[in-house]
Amino acid sequence: MSEPGIWGNPQEAQALGQERTRLEGKLSDWERLETGAGDISLLLDMAMEEEDESQAPDLERRVADFTKELDLYEARRILSGPMDLNNAIMDIHSGAGGTEAQDWTNMLLRMYLRYADRNNFKTQLVDKLDGDEAGLKSVTLTISGPYAYGLLSTEAGIHRLVRISPFDSQSRRHTSFASVFVTPEVNDDIVIEINDRDLRIDTFRASGAGGQHVNKTSSAIRITHLPTGIVVQCQDEKSQHRNKDLAMKVLRARLYKLEEEKKAKEIREMHESKKDIAWGSQIRSYTLQPYRLVKDHRTAHESGNVDAVLDGDLGDFIKSTLLWRAEG
């Protein structure tokens, strides 16, 4: 009797199907780019032959759109990790700088929400902790779309802001820090065993700034994974059941991240090398005063259009970081 082929193994069959879908998607993207380049070339030849300068604005727009699509294709080509295609879970925490840093955390949240909107990614807030006076102490959100984790993993690290403080009556320049941590959302077909006896589940009333209750029922959920000490909480949904589902999804993602590390030594090294959210550890600086510049300290890529960057125009920074990684 012949040995069963891979089609007899549902997990291998599913993995093969996913790989086929991924390759078909890349081929389709390439064919679309090839068609787009041909159309631009044809329009350019016609405009030059007829000496028709009125076609210039349309050609410039087409070239700009094509360049953006080409950059995205190149970034996705580099993304070949097993989790790069997955959705992302992003945590943003305020660091040194008090109220300034908490406001900066809120600005970063807006920046990533705008980036997601520009790239047709879906977002959902999982949990947030409001600042004492303004902004946010921390926030967790999911970002869903093709290659969301692979692209946004480049944003993990310390982000520094330099500006004239809107909270300083003397209008002095302040430096603020916030950290961004990104993990892949674990697909349902990846089995992460979580024993009920390893969980402590607490319920509490969801609340907003100033302690005003969002609802009168204990719908918010806090889950503590006792063996690892990982704590996840969710209070954005009105339903306790929905909050628990979201919190479990985040917990599975973080446990998968630990499992991916494999060895306790690697986990310790990761924590030992974890940098303080303060001076000397930033991956990117956003300077609004005394000049305007955003600079990535890993790649030296920079942009003087600070407003566009803070409005989610991160494509060039993400691309340069992916290329930097690919070059080792």
- Terminal Cα separation, in Å? 49 Å
Structural class based on helices, strands and sheet pairing: alpha+beta
Briefly note the CATH topology name of the largest domain: Alpha-Beta Plaits
- Give the rounded overall mean pLDDT: 83
The CATH architecture term of the largest domain is 2-Layer Sandwich
Number of strands: 11
Task: Count structural domains.
Answer: 3
- As residue ranges, the low-confidence spans are 1-9
Strand order of the largest sheet: 2-3-1-5-4-9-10-11
Written overview of the protein:
The structure is a single chain. This protein is α+β, with helices and mostly antiparallel strands. The chain is 42% helix and 23% strand. The N terminus is likely disordered. It is globular, with a radius of gyration of 23 Å. The chain has three domains: 72 residues; 155 residues, Alpha-Beta Plaits, CATH 3.30.70.1660; 70 residues, Double Stranded RNA Binding Domain, CATH 3.30.160.20. The termini are far apart.
